């Protein structure tokens, strides 16, 4: 009989969000990694690491450090935002709170459309940007970024996605983000582009761990 080899537990990665839409997207983007994904609700963590900074990089870093320290787990946190050139880059890091802390997605969308009223199409350029921070206990987070260029549509279109997706028009596809099924969105989105970079870092971490503890 061969000697018993203890089973090495699977590495757990915390997706540091309370947003179910973002959780679903990130889970799909990380599906090929040999890790167990958990979120804040599953761990019973209700505290919110407020996005107090003006830069997405600092918000993502703060969230990753906060929840990594709180959970003791490898942690992935992101801060994403819509940057509209005609509005001087707003709402940017304030995207989730642009219409007030209690506003829902339709209210945020309507505020943007109101501010963009009368602005001609060539000047409606914008981008979605996502910064992902990866944290391990006792270490400084690693940051990666993804971005997607587009335009602010004249009216909402599509029923997929969340946030500002219904008014973010992608000229190469001739559709808003909300008109893309999840599979297609996860090929082109700002979050997908950042997540692909994050996956490479996580694979490197897993390989380093395997070398230390085979």
Query: Which sequence of strands runs across the widest sheet?
Result: 2-1-3-4-5-6-7
Count of individual helical segments? 5
Q: Report the average pLDDT across residues.
A: 91
The tally of structural domains comes to 1
- What is the CATH topology classification name? Maf protein
Q: What is the first-to-last residue Cα distance?
A: 22 Å
The number of strands is 7
Unreliable sequence segments = 1-7
Helix-strand string: EHEHEHEEEEHH
Summarize the structure.
This protein is of the alpha/beta class and 214 residues long. The chain has helices at 20-29, 56-71, 105-115, 182-188, 190-212; strands spanning 12-15, 36-39, 74-84, 125-135, 142-152, 168-170, 175-176. α4 (182-188) crosses α5.
Provide the fold topology:
Elements: E1 12-15, H1 20-29, E2 36-39, H2 56-71, E3 74-84, H3 105-115, E4 125-135, E5 142-152, E6 168-170, E7 175-176, H4 182-188, H5 190-212
What does this protein structure show overall?
The protein has helices spanning 20-29, 56-71, 105-115, 182-188, 190-212, and strands spanning 12-15, 36-39, 74-84, 125-135, 142-152, 168-170, 175-176. It is α/β, with parallel strands linked by helices. It has a single domain, classed as Maf protein. It has a seven-stranded mixed beta sheet with strand order 2-1-3-4-5-6-7. Strand 4 and strand 5 form a beta hairpin. The longest helix is centred in the C-terminal third of the chain and has 23 residues, at 190-212. The chain is globular, with a radius of gyration of 19 Å. It starts with 11 loop residues before the first strand and ends with a helix. Mean pLDDT is 91; it is low at 1-7.
